[in-house]
Design a protein that fits this description.
CATH topology of the domain at 3-123: Beta Polymerase, domain 2
Order of helices and strands: HEEHEEEHHEHHHH
Strand content: 5-15%
Number of strands: 6
Oligomer: single chain
CATH superfamily of the domain at 3-123: Beta Polymerase, domain 2
CATH architecture of the domain at 3-123: 2-Layer Sandwich
Largest sheet: 6 strands, mixed
Radius of gyration: 51 Å
Shape: rod-shaped
Distance between the termini: 163 Å
Length: 227
Protein backbone atom coordinates (compact mmCIF):
# COMPACT_ATOMS: atom_id res chain seq x y z
CA UNK A 1 0.00 0.00 0.00
CA UNK A 2 1.15 3.52 -0.79
CA UNK A 3 2.56 5.25 2.30
CA UNK A 4 0.44 8.39 1.76
CA UNK A 5 -2.72 6.34 1.54
CA UNK A 6 -1.68 4.38 4.64
CA UNK A 7 -1.10 7.48 6.74
CA UNK A 8 -4.46 8.89 5.59
CA UNK A 9 -6.23 5.70 6.69
CA UNK A 10 -4.50 5.81 10.07
CA UNK A 11 -5.52 9.45 10.65
CA UNK A 12 -9.14 8.66 9.81
CA UNK A 13 -9.15 5.65 12.14
CA UNK A 14 -7.72 7.71 15.02
CA UNK A 15 -10.17 10.58 14.52
CA UNK A 16 -13.10 8.16 14.52
CA UNK A 17 -12.34 7.34 18.19
CA UNK A 18 -11.61 10.98 19.16
CA UNK A 19 -7.84 10.68 19.53
CA UNK A 20 -6.01 13.69 20.99
CA UNK A 21 -2.93 15.53 19.69
CA UNK A 22 -2.29 13.42 16.58
CA UNK A 23 1.18 14.00 15.14
CA UNK A 24 2.79 12.24 12.16
CA UNK A 25 6.51 12.39 11.27
CA UNK A 26 8.47 11.46 8.16
CA UNK A 27 11.35 9.19 9.19
CA UNK A 28 12.76 8.20 5.78
CA UNK A 29 15.91 10.25 6.36
CA UNK A 30 16.41 8.81 9.88
CA UNK A 31 15.91 5.04 9.51
CA UNK A 32 15.31 2.38 6.90
CA UNK A 33 13.01 0.33 9.15
CA UNK A 34 9.87 2.42 8.55
CA UNK A 35 8.84 5.57 6.66
CA UNK A 36 6.31 7.11 9.05
CA UNK A 37 5.70 7.27 12.77
CA UNK A 38 2.50 8.47 14.44
CA UNK A 39 2.24 9.60 18.06
CA UNK A 40 -1.21 10.06 19.57
CA UNK A 41 -2.76 10.36 23.04
CA UNK A 42 -5.64 8.47 24.66
CA UNK A 43 -7.21 9.61 27.92
CA UNK A 44 -7.67 6.13 29.41
CA UNK A 45 -6.72 2.47 29.01
CA UNK A 46 -10.06 1.83 27.38
CA UNK A 47 -9.57 4.58 24.79
CA UNK A 48 -6.01 3.56 23.90
CA UNK A 49 -7.21 0.00 23.24
CA UNK A 50 -10.14 1.31 21.17
CA UNK A 51 -7.78 3.50 19.12
CA UNK A 52 -5.49 0.55 18.40
CA UNK A 53 -8.47 -1.60 17.38
CA UNK A 54 -9.78 1.15 15.08
CA UNK A 55 -6.42 1.46 13.32
CA UNK A 56 -6.11 -2.31 12.95
CA UNK A 57 -9.61 -2.70 11.50
CA UNK A 58 -9.36 0.24 9.09
CA UNK A 59 -6.03 -0.89 7.68
CA UNK A 60 -7.31 -4.45 7.19
CA UNK A 61 -10.45 -3.21 5.44
CA UNK A 62 -8.31 -1.32 2.92
CA UNK A 63 -5.98 -4.25 2.21
CA UNK A 64 -3.12 -3.28 4.51
CA UNK A 65 -0.96 -5.53 6.66
CA UNK A 66 -0.81 -5.61 10.48
CA UNK A 67 2.53 -7.00 11.63
CA UNK A 68 1.89 -6.77 15.38
CA UNK A 69 0.01 -4.99 18.17
CA UNK A 70 1.78 -4.64 21.53
CA UNK A 71 0.77 -3.20 24.91
CA UNK A 72 -2.97 -3.93 24.82
CA UNK A 73 -2.76 -5.73 28.17
CA UNK A 74 -2.03 -2.60 30.21
CA UNK A 75 -3.25 0.03 27.75
CA UNK A 76 -0.78 2.67 28.86
CA UNK A 77 1.25 2.46 25.66
CA UNK A 78 -0.11 0.51 22.69
CA UNK A 79 2.11 0.09 19.62
CA UNK A 80 0.63 -0.88 16.23
CA UNK A 81 3.23 -2.04 13.69
CA UNK A 82 2.01 -1.56 10.10
CA UNK A 83 5.37 -2.27 8.45
CA UNK A 84 6.02 1.07 6.75
CA UNK A 85 4.36 2.95 9.61
CA UNK A 86 4.47 2.64 13.39
CA UNK A 87 1.60 4.03 15.49
CA UNK A 88 2.29 4.87 19.16
CA UNK A 89 -0.90 5.30 21.21
CA UNK A 90 0.04 6.60 24.65
CA UNK A 91 -1.56 8.06 27.72
CA UNK A 92 -0.53 11.70 28.41
CA UNK A 93 1.79 10.92 31.34
CA UNK A 94 3.67 8.21 29.42
CA UNK A 95 3.92 10.42 26.36
CA UNK A 96 5.31 13.34 28.33
CA UNK A 97 7.90 11.06 29.94
CA UNK A 98 9.32 9.39 26.81
CA UNK A 99 9.03 12.41 24.46
CA UNK A 100 9.10 10.53 21.18
CA UNK A 101 8.54 13.79 19.27
CA UNK A 102 12.04 14.93 20.24
CA UNK A 103 13.55 11.75 18.76
CA UNK A 104 11.58 11.43 15.52
CA UNK A 105 10.09 14.90 15.08
CA UNK A 106 12.53 16.55 12.66
CA UNK A 107 10.08 16.45 9.74
CA UNK A 108 6.43 16.64 10.75
CA UNK A 109 3.61 16.02 8.27
CA UNK A 110 0.58 18.26 8.61
CA UNK A 111 -2.74 16.53 9.17
CA UNK A 112 -4.39 18.64 6.46
CA UNK A 113 -2.18 17.07 3.82
CA UNK A 114 -2.98 13.57 5.07
CA UNK A 115 -6.73 14.27 4.99
CA UNK A 116 -6.57 15.64 1.46
CA UNK A 117 -4.87 12.43 0.34
CA UNK A 118 -7.62 10.43 2.04
CA UNK A 119 -10.42 12.38 0.33
CA UNK A 120 -8.73 12.15 -3.07
CA UNK A 121 -8.24 8.41 -2.69
CA UNK A 122 -11.87 7.89 -1.68
CA UNK A 123 -13.12 9.89 -4.68
CA UNK A 124 -11.06 7.88 -7.21
CA UNK A 125 -13.00 4.91 -8.70
CA UNK A 126 -11.64 1.40 -8.47
CA UNK A 127 -9.72 0.23 -11.54
CA UNK A 128 -11.67 -3.03 -11.76
CA UNK A 129 -15.10 -1.45 -11.28
CA UNK A 130 -17.13 -0.90 -14.47
CA UNK A 131 -17.71 2.72 -15.36
CA UNK A 132 -21.29 3.86 -15.45
CA UNK A 133 -22.49 5.49 -18.62
CA UNK A 134 -23.90 8.95 -18.13
CA UNK A 135 -27.55 9.43 -19.00
CA UNK A 136 -28.54 11.33 -22.10
CA UNK A 137 -30.21 14.06 -20.08
CA UNK A 138 -27.02 14.58 -18.06
CA UNK A 139 -24.71 14.76 -21.06
CA UNK A 140 -27.00 17.15 -22.92
CA UNK A 141 -27.55 19.51 -20.01
CA UNK A 142 -23.97 19.52 -18.74
CA UNK A 143 -22.13 19.80 -22.07
CA UNK A 144 -19.83 22.87 -21.76
CA UNK A 145 -19.30 23.11 -25.53
CA UNK A 146 -22.98 23.54 -26.40
CA UNK A 147 -23.33 27.09 -27.72
CA UNK A 148 -27.09 27.00 -27.34
CA UNK A 149 -27.03 25.87 -23.73
CA UNK A 150 -29.87 27.43 -21.81
CA UNK A 151 -29.30 29.43 -18.70
CA UNK A 152 -30.49 28.03 -15.37
CA UNK A 153 -34.18 28.59 -14.78
CA UNK A 154 -33.46 30.14 -11.40
CA UNK A 155 -31.39 32.93 -12.92
CA UNK A 156 -34.01 33.61 -15.60
CA UNK A 157 -36.78 33.82 -13.00
CA UNK A 158 -34.68 36.18 -10.89
CA UNK A 159 -34.10 38.48 -13.86
CA UNK A 160 -37.83 38.51 -14.66
CA UNK A 161 -38.71 39.44 -11.10
CA UNK A 162 -36.10 42.21 -11.11
CA UNK A 163 -37.43 43.60 -14.42
CA UNK A 164 -41.01 43.54 -13.13
CA UNK A 165 -40.02 45.35 -9.94
CA UNK A 166 -38.17 48.03 -11.95
CA UNK A 167 -41.18 48.56 -14.24
CA UNK A 168 -43.51 48.92 -11.23
CA UNK A 169 -41.24 51.51 -9.62
CA UNK A 170 -41.00 53.46 -12.88
CA UNK A 171 -44.78 53.49 -13.29
CA UNK A 172 -45.29 54.75 -9.73
CA UNK A 173 -42.69 57.46 -10.21
CA UNK A 174 -44.33 58.63 -13.47
CA UNK A 175 -47.78 58.77 -11.84
CA UNK A 176 -46.39 60.76 -8.91
CA UNK A 177 -44.73 63.28 -11.22
CA UNK A 178 -47.91 63.71 -13.33
CA UNK A 179 -50.11 64.44 -10.29
CA UNK A 180 -50.60 68.24 -9.83
CA UNK A 181 -49.44 69.65 -6.55
CA UNK A 182 -50.87 72.94 -5.13
CA UNK A 183 -52.98 73.82 -8.21
CA UNK A 184 -56.74 74.29 -8.53
CA UNK A 185 -58.32 72.50 -11.42
CA UNK A 186 -61.47 74.03 -12.87
CA UNK A 187 -64.16 71.64 -13.99
CA UNK A 188 -66.63 72.74 -16.67
CA UNK A 189 -70.26 72.72 -15.63
CA UNK A 190 -72.65 70.36 -17.31
CA UNK A 191 -75.54 71.60 -19.49
CA UNK A 192 -78.10 70.54 -16.86
CA UNK A 193 -76.35 72.62 -14.19
CA UNK A 194 -76.24 75.67 -16.48
CA UNK A 195 -79.99 75.43 -17.29
CA UNK A 196 -80.91 75.01 -13.62
CA UNK A 197 -78.87 78.08 -12.70
CA UNK A 198 -80.62 80.18 -15.37
CA UNK A 199 -84.10 79.09 -14.23
CA UNK A 200 -83.28 79.94 -10.64
CA UNK A 201 -82.08 83.39 -11.67
CA UNK A 202 -85.23 83.98 -13.69
CA UNK A 203 -87.45 83.12 -10.72
CA UNK A 204 -85.51 85.38 -8.34
CA UNK A 205 -85.51 88.48 -10.64
CA UNK A 206 -89.26 89.37 -10.49
CA UNK A 207 -89.24 89.03 -6.74
CA UNK A 208 -86.34 91.42 -6.42
CA UNK A 209 -87.96 93.97 -8.79
CA UNK A 210 -91.34 93.85 -6.93
CA UNK A 211 -89.59 94.36 -3.63
CA UNK A 212 -87.77 97.42 -5.00
CA UNK A 213 -90.97 98.86 -6.42
CA UNK A 214 -92.81 98.49 -3.09
CA UNK A 215 -89.96 100.09 -1.22
CA UNK A 216 -89.92 103.03 -3.62
CA UNK A 217 -93.69 103.55 -3.30
CA UNK A 218 -93.46 103.68 0.47
CA UNK A 219 -90.63 106.12 0.39
CA UNK A 220 -92.32 108.57 -2.05
CA UNK A 221 -94.15 111.54 -0.45
CA UNK A 222 -97.90 111.59 -0.64
CA UNK A 223 -99.43 114.37 -2.77
CA UNK A 224 -102.62 116.08 -1.72
CA UNK A 225 -105.37 116.35 -4.19
CA UNK A 226 -107.00 119.72 -4.74
CA UNK A 227 -110.47 120.18 -3.37
Amino acid sequence: MDIKKLQAIVVDALEDVKAQDIRIFDTVHLTSLFDRIAVVSGTSNRQTKALAASVRDKVKENGGTILSVEGETTGEWVLVDLGDMIVHIMQPAIRAYYRLEEIWGEKEIKLGAAKRVSQRTASEPDEGAPKKAAGRHLTTASSPTDDGMKKPARKVATKKIAAKTTATKTARKTAAEAKPVGKTVKVAQTKTAVVSAKEAAARKTPVKRTAVKVAATKAAPKTKTAD
